[in-house]
Design a protein that fits this description.
There is one protein chain. Helix 2 links the parallel strand 4 and strand 5. Strands 14, 15, 17, 18, 20, 22, 24, 25, 27, 28, 30 and 31 form a twelve-stranded parallel beta sheet that branches. A seven-stranded mixed beta sheet has the order 5-4-1-6-11-8-12, sandwiched between helices. It has a six-stranded parallel beta sheet with strand order 16-19-21-23-26-29, with no helix packed on it. It starts with a strand and ends with a strand. The protein has 409 residues and is α/β, with parallel strands linked by helices. 24% of the residues lie in helices and 29% in strands. It binds guanosine-5'-diphosphate-alpha-D-mannose.
Length: 409
């Protein structure tokens, strides 16, 4: 049997995702019309002999309850949300729930960060992992040398694929091969974490001998139940024939900012063409709007037949789109109203916002730049004919004049 664990983190982690994480936990933010965490969950479903999927985080239970029960029923796989009482780190959270994870005595455990976007080649990873016969296999990919320092940089043996060296977000360049945040382990991973824990407790006890030294070290060391997978667990195990790498040549992104989430929404829409074409709007019906490229429209949304939408557009529940509206590369969240002849391009429009007639909410679409896309927070009103360009607007604002390259607080 195989268990999949998805680390969803908690409220303090989503700060770069503001203003979109004020009311919705980042893992539930919709990409291609489905919560972020839905994409790895669907991928887990393709793992042979999967017995359960566990989401581990420190968000309130009630925030995940509805989604988890509905997706569990839909996919017919037991899916549970497990809440930590406080953050234990990416390996600490796993260790904290080790008894529940090992409940069905799985032979393998997948561990996935929830904030990555890729095509999750999990069955292929498992096959490679079995061949390598180590304790763990990491999904890795090549990125540009300039961006590598945002990730765990690593060196692998070109023939055996063994992980030889690992440094988390190094200041000086090590390698353009990086950790994708997707792993498969044997249950030995728990012994590895236990060993680090025992070692740390030992040191903590020693330290009590000298109070001056204790004070000095306490500021430098972590609590005895907090473990980061990358730095505390994986790094010391490199070059010991226990960790291996599996490289993906397909797309991979880390979703830390709203700009990248817009890019990932587009990537997942393209994926849907292969995996779930029934989710994409076709625009074939004579009464429906003109659809260009890959577009998701929630069944409850009302789109006027003269509207033109796409490519890369995702429209959530209860959205109303009036005549002559043009939408390109955008995410329109629940309960938004877009009035006649408005244009939205390279933007995310927050829940319950309202765009007036002939208004424009737009950006140039540089996903990596801070103001490269326009973001409207929840319940923002854009009056008729107002143009909002390359800006971020915080919730509940009303714009009656045009703005450009501004953050409206
Ligand atoms: N449950 C729980 N509890 N989850 C946590 C905790 C915790 O205390 N801390 C972090 N996480 C989750 C985050 O939500 C995320 O999904 C994952 O664990 C990793 O988060 P971080 O430890 O903050 O690392 P990162 O995202 O900056 O970088 C990691 O992922 C990159 C790939 O996206 C590292 O592993 C990098 O090496 C890697 O390149």
């Amino acid at each position: 049997k195989v268990v999949a664990v998805i680390m969803v983190g908690g409220p303090t982690k989503g700060t770069r995702f503001r203003p979109l994480s004020f009311n919705t936990p980042k893992p539930l933010f919709p990409l291609a019309g489905q919560p972020m965490v839905h994409h790895p969950i669907l991928a887990c479903k393709r793992i042979p002999n999967l017995s359960q999927i566990l989401l581990i985080g420190f968000y309130e239970e009630r925030e995940f309850a509805l989604y988890v029960s509905s997706i569990s029923n839909e996919l017919k796989v037991p899916i549970r949300y497990l809440r930590e009482d406080k953050p234990h780190g990416s390996a600490g959270g796993l260790y904290y729930f080790r008894d529940l994870i090992m409940e069905d005595a799985p032979s393998h455990i997948f561990l996935l960060n929830c904030d990555v976007c890729c095509n999750f080649p999990l069955p292929d990873m498992l096959e490679a992992h079995r061949r390598y016969d180590g304790m763990g296999t990491l999904l890795v990919t090549k990125v540009s040398a300039e961006s590598a320092n945002q990730f765990g940089e690593l060196v692998a043996d070109p023939i055996t694929n063994e992980l030889l060296h690992y440094t988390e977000k190094p200041e000086t360049f090590v390698s353009d091969l990086i950790n994708c945040g997707i792993y498969v382990f044997t249950p030995e991973i728990f012994t590895a974490i236990q060993d680090v824990s025992t070692h740390r407790e030992g040191r903590a006890n020693l330290r009590r001998v000298s109070s001056f030294e204790a004070l000095q070290l306490a500021t430098r060391t972590l609590p005895t139940d907090f473990f980061r997978l990358d730095q505390d667990i994986l790094s010391p195990l490199t070059g010991k024939k226990r960790l291996y790498t599996y490289e993906t040549m397909d797309f991979w992104e880390q979703i830390k900012t709203p700009g990248i989430s817009l890019k990932c929404s587009a990537l997942y829409l393209v994926q849907f063409r292969l995996t779930s074409p029934h989710l994409l709007a076709s625009g074939d019906g004579t009464k429906s709007a003109t659809v260009i490229g890959d577009v998701y429209v929630h069944p409850s949304a009302k789109v006027h037949p003269t509207a033109k939408i796409g490519p890369s557009v995702s429209i959530s529940a209860n959205v109303r789109i009036a005549a002559g509206v043009r939408l390109i590369s955008c995410i329109i969240l629940d309960d938004v109203e877009i009035k006649e002849n408005a244009v939205v391009m390279h933007a995310i429009v927050g829940w319950k916002s309202s765009l007036g007639k002939w208004s424009r909410v737009q950006a140039e679409g540089d996903y990596n730049a801070k103001l490269g896309i326009t973001i409207l927070g929840e319940a923002v009103t854009v009056e008729d004919e107002v143009v909002v360009t390359n800006s971020i607007v915080l919730p509940n604002k009303s714009l009656n004049g045009s703005v450009q390259e501004e953050i409206i607080l």
